């Protein structure tokens, strides 16, 4: 990550700090393990799970009675059938007592009933069990556990035991060696100042924490994470896209402000984008900024590779911007997932946790912090690698995952996306980027700079034919330009609902 100053955009010299950050060390807490997925235990009174929180089911009584010592055996014998009846009806009594304490009890009962109904179906129940088993195994295989100040728990898992190698075609393998040959700018292209290979600033690694060599950091999934979703089977996946929709379609409630290039053979893309804590209005919505590498038609055969930052309360349970990856081979239908939630992306880096929060972030009218992302296809092995600027490699998407991207991409896209669930019939106030329009410029609007693509010679070239499109400019807009320092760049984003976006 790099701090951007006003002189950066005008072609002047840039001020750099080592590692690109100036941060205040945080104090680590050690008491956040309560939501971890662990095998549940059974007892006489079972716990009711409401959004990941166990609520003990217990009956209350207004008074207690004691047996009189003068009672005769026949009287005791006559009470036995009554006692058996009470014991048999105990679960109903417990449920009545639990639900009878005001509207809060009824609300929790409704949430519980909803989750039980959702996960009762065979495929949903099996998916839920599979998620729990995978995360229990991650915890067991972990060589070290790191508590993040933001509440995340990071497991340091041996690289050959990460989820990617559960894939039938990868089982038993180990991560491949990093490619020696990496994309380089062609002579004559706008020169981007090289970034120092500092540690990517994430909350969990504050203070220099890292996983041991030979392991990879994996963010722990909690019960609460899973129960926030309406479908365990699609946990960690984007909503299905319309089968014949173009990528910039709003038919599924997704809205974009993007720059894209198409009509050629592309082997990767690179850009720097500043990071913001975008405000998301509903747990059913998200806001993200990313690079898409795309191949195939915009039907069910769509292949994509994606990386960037996102704010997603449903997926992560908070409003922190987080580093993420995604992939699909069938237009978000049944394949692919975010981060390491399924078998796919192979992580090779022990300092970067995919899905963990990025810190610090940009400040309106203040300091700007951006990250540089490079996705490219290794010309020798065919895998698609993810790199942070000119610094460390994060990992790769194996070529065997894909159909069309087994060869090359035919479209590359850069920009922002939000989900508009139209609360109360109006447009969502969920922000894209900084939540301010592009016309406000540097220090105020979100940007992509040094927008480049990788050509057939494994060279980085400017995305000179970049086209800009905003689905709803009154809600989220985009404006582009060029200068020597930033090459091809654009500002994008907006506040969502406003007088021009009812």
Automatic annotation (TrEMBL):
Swiss-Prot/TrEMBL keywords: Membrane, Transmembrane, Transmembrane helix
Domain (Neprosin PEP catalytic): residue spans on this chain: 248-502
Gene3D superfamilies referenced in this protein's UniProt entry, alphabetically: Outer-capsid protein sigma 3, large lobe
Transmembrane intervals: 73-94
InterPro entries referenced in this protein's UniProt entry, alphabetically: Glutamic_endopeptidase, Neprosin, Neprosin_propep
Region of interest (Disordered), residue spans: 1-38, 166-196
Biased composition, class Basic and acidic residues, residue ranges: 173-184
Name of the protein: Neprosin PEP catalytic domain-containing protein
